[in-house]
Design goal:
With 282 residues, this protein is an alpha/beta fold. It has helices at residues 10-17, 33-42, 60-67, 83-92, 125-136, 154-161, 171-179, 218-230, 236-239, 247-253, 267-280, and strands at 29-30, 50-54, 72-77, 97-101, 117-122, 145-153, 180-188, 193-194, 201-208. The chain contains eleven helices and nine strands. S-adenosylmethionine is lined by residues 25-30, 54-57, 60-61, 76-79, 103-105, 122, 124, 127.
C-alpha cells in the first residue's frame, strides 16, 4: 500500500525496524497518517516555522508535520531503535528533518532551531507534564516558542484549560493561562493508538501571550498558588497563613474574601494577591 509521501505505511515501518512498543518509554503510537496530519494542522500554518517534536517514535506525526509544510522539524527521540526509521523519513524530506537521539529533558533544543518555533508532540506521558512546566516557566518571557500543540491524557488536558469552580482547576491551569491561551482542539479515544493506553487523550493547543495577562511576580504567584491549592478545601485565610503575618488584611486588600477557597479564585484574583504579597516581601 502506498502513502501520500511515498514512504511505507507505519505498520510496515514498525515491522521492518522491530519497533515493538515499550511501556517504560510511554510508547503508544499513532499509525493513521490522516490523523497525524490532522494533529499537525492544529498547530496552524507551519510553513516558515521550525517545529520541535519530542518523541517522534516511528515517525507518524513527524511525517504529518513535514507534509503540512514545516520549514524544519527537530525531532528528539530517546529510543535508538527508531533512528533507522526516522532516517528514511529524513531522506524523503531532504534537509528538513534533524533527528537527535537523546532524552528531551537533557537536550537544549535552542541550538538547533531558528524562530519562529512551534512545538508539536504526542508526548510520552511520563515526561509530558514536566516538559510543559519547563516550557511555561522559562527564565524570561516571551519563551522560544510561539505555540505548543501537545497530546495529553484527557485528565491532564482538562486541568490545563480548567476555569474557576471546577474540580480540575488548580496550579496547572493558572500557570498556563497566566501567560498563554489554552484550548482543547481534539479528543482521541484509546483505540486511536497502538497499543491503546488505558485512558482517552486530548490535544491541547497553547498560544503564548506577549506578556502576562495580569502583572505579578512569577515566583510569588507560584508560591501563593502552591499554598492555596495544597489545601484547596480550606479557606484562604487558613491555607495562606504561612505567607504573611497580616495575610487576612492582604487578602482583603486584593479584593478577595478571606473565607473564600482556592478553587473559587480567578487568575486575576491570584495575581492581585501576589502583588499585595510582593509588598510584604514573602
Ligand atoms: N510521536 C509518535 C507517535 O505519535 O506515534 C510516538 C509517540 S509515543 C506516545 C512517545 C515517544 O516518546 C516514544 O517514541 C518514546 O520512545 C519517546 N520518549 C519517551 N521518553 C522520552 C524522552 N525523555 N525524550 C525523548 N523521547 C522520549
Amino acid at each position: 500500500m502506498s502513502t501520500i509521501d511515498g514512504l511505507p505505511p507505519l505498520r510496515e515501518v514498525i515491522a521492518t525496524h522491530g519497533l515493538s512498543a515499550r511501556k517504560q518509554l510511554g510508547q503508544n503510537f499513532l499509525l493513521d497518517l490522516n490523523l497525524t496530519a490532522k494533529i499537525a494542522r492544529q498547530a496552524g500554518d507551519l510553513s516558515g516555522c521550525d517545529v520541535l517534536e519530542v518523541g517522534p517514535g516511528p515517525g507518524g506525526l513527524t511525517r504529518g508535520l513535514l507534509a503540512e509544510g514545516a520549514r524544519k522539524v527537530l525531532a528528539i527521540e530517546k529510543d535508538t531503535r527508531c533512528m533507522a526509521a526516522l532516517a528514511e523519513v529524513g531522506a524523503a524530506y531532504a534537509g528538513r528533518l534533524e533527528v537527535v537521539n537523546g532524552d528531551a529533558l537533557q537536550i537544549d533544543p535552542l541550538a538547533h532551531l531558528a524562530p519562529p518555533v512551534r512545538v508539536v508532540a504526542n508526548l510520552p506521558y511520563n515526561v509530558g507534564t514536566e516538559l510543559l512546566i519547563r516550557w511555561m516557566t522559562p527564565a524570561e518571557w516571551p519563551p522560544f516558542w510561539e505555540s505548543l500543540t501537545l497530546m495529553f491524557q484527557r485528565e491532564v488536558a482538562e486541568r490545563i484549560v480548567a476555569k474557576p469552580g471546577s474540580k480540575a482547576y488548580g496550579r496547572l491551569a493558572l500557570m498556563v493561562q497566566w501567560r498563554a491561551e489554552a484550548r482543547i482542539v481534539m479528543q482521541l479515544p484509546p483505540e486511536a493508538f497502538t497499543p491503546p493506553p488505558k485512558v482517552s487523550s486530548s490535544v491541547v493547543h497553547i498560544t503564548r501571550l506577549d506578556a502576562p495577562r495580569y502583572p505579578a511576580d512569577g515566583a510569588i504567584l507560584s508560591r501563593l498558588t502552591a499554598a492555596a491549592f495544597n489545601q484547596r478545601r480550606k479557606m484562604l485565610r487558613s491555607s495562606l497563613r504561612g505567607l504573611a503575618p497580616d495575610i487576612e488584611a492582604r487578602i482583603e486588600a486584593a479584593g478577595l474574601k478571606p473565607t473564600a477557597r482556592a478553587e473559587e479564585i480567578p487568575l486575576e484574583g491570584f495575581c492581585a494577591l501576589a502583588r499585595e504579597l510582593a509588598h510584604a516581601q514573602v
